Amino acid sequence: SQQGEEDPQALSIQEGENATMNCSYKTSIINLQWYRQNSGRGLVHLILIRSNEREKHSGRLRVTLDTSKKSSSLLITASRAADTASYFCATGNYGQNFVFGPGTRLSVLP
Amino acid sequence: EADIYQTPRYLVIGTGKKITLECSQTMGHDKMYWYQQDPGMELHLIHYSYGVNSTEKGDLSSESTVSRIRTEHFPLTLESARPSHTSQYLCASSESAESDYEQYFGPGTRLTVT
Q: How far, in Å, CA of A58 to CA of A87, rounded?
């Protein structure tokens, strides 16, 4: 069974609004990464948060991690049309390959 | 943009043909990966490599094979393509096998087998 699972599967918002995506996982992890994928392209790394961190910021991105609930959230503030993409979480553990979730498809309408 | 390249970007080929998808990276990364991704779906790891002469099968069973003769090159081969192989194939690399390191992805090869 997959480790990471994003929620919602799809999200549609207006430009300027905030977008929140969630990722839940099943087993313990040492870190969690978020990636973005524009249509038909490869993935681009956004941010990594370690298991001993609770929150991290990068520009308009804010990631939280709650290891007790085995969940993470990605918040994009003041969204732009260019943020339209699929967003994936990937969980990491010692000696194991990353496991990617099915992704959240975000549409930002102008 | 990451220095990882995939060719071809698009390939339409008939059933039974042998194909090789190319992947090269200029970052000197030891670890490389191949993922299979259907449109709008999650990524499935099909092969990975820790370095030269290392190849491992991933979580998703695949009829493809890989080789790693040079650090920068990690080609994927299908001996006899079938319609079930139609998918997008993504190559990635990372500096280390440790999960603290981000993966850099190529643009992908979209394969259609008719």
A: 15
